[in-house]
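Sequence only, no structure available. Ideas?
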Amino acid sequence: MSDSDRATIVSSFLQDPRDRKRFGALFGLSLNLTRAFLNKLKSLGWRLPVYDNDDERSISDLAIDILIELFKSKSQRPFYIIYDFYSRQGIRDFDKDIDEIYDQFRILLWSSTRQTLYRLSSQENPQIANLKRRIKDILKGDEYSFYGNDKKSVYLSGNEISLQSDKPLIPKDNLVNIVETAYLRSKTRSGWCRKIFNLLGEQSEYCGILDIAVLIDTIVSVNARHVELDGNYSANLPTPQTSLQQTIIKKATVRALDTVKSNHISHFLEKGKMTEEESKYFYEAVEKYLLDKGSDGTTDLIPEYFREVTPGTLHKDYQKKYKYIFETIINKADEYFVNYLKNNL
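Reply:
I predicted one. Tokens follow.
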């Protein structure tokens, strides 16, 4: 394909971005260009988050991730990033000087590729990001209730009758002490959260409500200090410190989820051992379990994941009705996940 043909593809799309064929042609061209840019950066010594054992396919996956960001749309503003770029260049007529339009598009792609790689290289520490996610997930469970319409504060549902909402919020220093004590008395993240609120309920001078952002910030700081002191992260799974490791772990997670869905969840569904709705709960629980496993090698107790994703009405039937099925699915996912990492890390 000549540069003239490429310029025509870009110009045609910009004149009518809602045309599917024009979009498909531009996306295909963009994918080829972005792959070429990534290979060039790799040759210059950039460390790309790709799989060593499937390099070209992984570069294509990375290129698609970059393009998904570039081709984003807003309501009434399709592909606003692209059009805003041309607007800044003073280009608004897309049927004129199409060679210049194509040159500018290459500049935009090159810039987007590098910016995405910079962003990926400076992501939040995966262990911290996962801990924040887990705490947020736990606080959305049936054990907890939001306080206020903005849903920025939370309390333990069982403490509702003794919230003392007329009392002040606990000061940060006092909260740190409670979170620290709860950490030392708990074995799981779910238990840690529960213990924090139970200890808070014993503080008669403060209300039993916590600002979610403050709570998460305190939990992260206490967790970080103990990780440094006692090496809390499991040695069974390498801590994912590089982009390559993170990419492989993500792939292991996806493969494990696909495997249990097609082989095990579907089996129990066919046997009538679970409903379609229950299968969705179990799939979500497996995903949460694997995200924890892939972050630092540690997980909560398996029943905690069941409690986290299912309605409270199902909890009393866990031992009799769900335990075998649920734990079989989790264990099969864990087995596949660990074996995949052993073969690829």
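Residues 127-230 form one domain.
Hope that gets you unstuck.
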